[in-house]
Amino acid sequence: EAGVVQSPRYKIIEKKQPVAFWCNPISGHNTLYWYLQNLGQGPELLIRYENEEAVDDSQLPKDRFSAERLKGVDSTLKIQPAELGDSAVYLCASSLDVWGNEQFFGPGTRLTVL
Amino acid sequence: QQQVKQSPQSLIVQKGGISIINCAYENTAFDYFPWYQQFPGKGPALLIAIRPDVSEKKEGRFTISFNKSAKQFSLHIMDSQPGDSATYFCAASMEETSGSRLTFGEGTQLTVNP
Q1: Most buried residue, A27, A44, B34, B106, by CB count within 10 Å?
Q2: How high is the pLDDT of residue A71?
Q3: What is the full DSSP assignment across B6-18?
Q4: Chain A contact present for B24, CB below 8 A
Q5: How far, rounded to the nearest angstrom, does the alpha carbon of residue B1 sit from its chain's CA centroid?
Q6: B1 has pLDDT over 60
Q7: pLDDT band of B94, cuts 50, 70, 90
Q8: Residues of chain A neighbouring B94 (CB-CB closer than 8 A)
Q9: Nearest CA among B106, B83, B65, B85 for reference residue B12
């Protein structure tokens, strides 16, 4: 069974540039999560989707971050414009449903903003 | 807002020894307490989890001890092996109207020396 797929694995951009991350969850998983993980810290939830609906986006900085999950399968997280402080690992996870506590994580995208 | 506090930040153990990582939480509404294991360049993976209706859960060399009155839980790794060297995160969640949300601790970097 394929796990959660994320791309790209690494991204280096100049500040003020836009960047996008892509995630394909495990087949059949209705719930998808985007997390931010700073170096030496635990993951912090940015947004949670149930199918195509964002059911928890309270921690998403909406002035520069946006996300979408068209058709309730794969998802894209975008930052525009990127700031130096956005350098981190962006993790995608999925679970069978919003009540399913086991979340399966992808390998993440390491973003460096110069 | 740090709702789950984890210690120690780093831990060095000899092969065959016992590794102990502790977590404390504040929100008494939490009802699910998982431990995740993360290797460099990988996403976190569920290791073991417990609910507050039991005080201990054991899976192989891994045991969670839970103290509801003290609002603390811990991970014990028996017969620690070099392959256990990783970062460990405790987490907690509670069911909300929109589902469950995991809150992670800051992580413990475990090194098991051969």
Answers
A1: B34
A2: 87
A3: EE-SEEEEETTS-
A4: no
A5: 19
A6: no
A7: confident
A8: none
A9: B85
Hunting for tokens 């694995």 — which residue is that? A9
Q: Which one of A49, A60, A103, A109 would you mutate to disrupt binding with B, by most B Cβ within 10 Å of its Cβ?
A: A103
In angstroms and rounded to an integer, the radius of gyration of the C-alpha atoms of chain B is 14
The tokens for B24 are 């404390």
Q: Within 13 Å and on the Cβ side, how many CA atoms surround B95?
A: 7
Q: How far apart are the first and last CA of chain A?
A: 37
Query: Touching check for B35 and chain A: CB below 8 Å?
Result: no
CA A14 from centre of chain: 20
User: In 3-state terms, what secondary structure has residue A59?
Assistant: coil
Q: How many other C-beta atoms are found inside a 10 Å radius of the C-beta of residue A22? A: 14
| Half-sphere exposure of residue A75: CA atoms within 13 angstroms, side-chain side | 31
Determine the Cα–Cα distance for residues B61 and B6; give it in Å rounded to an integer: 21
- Identify the closest residue of chain B to A108 by CA–CA distance: B43
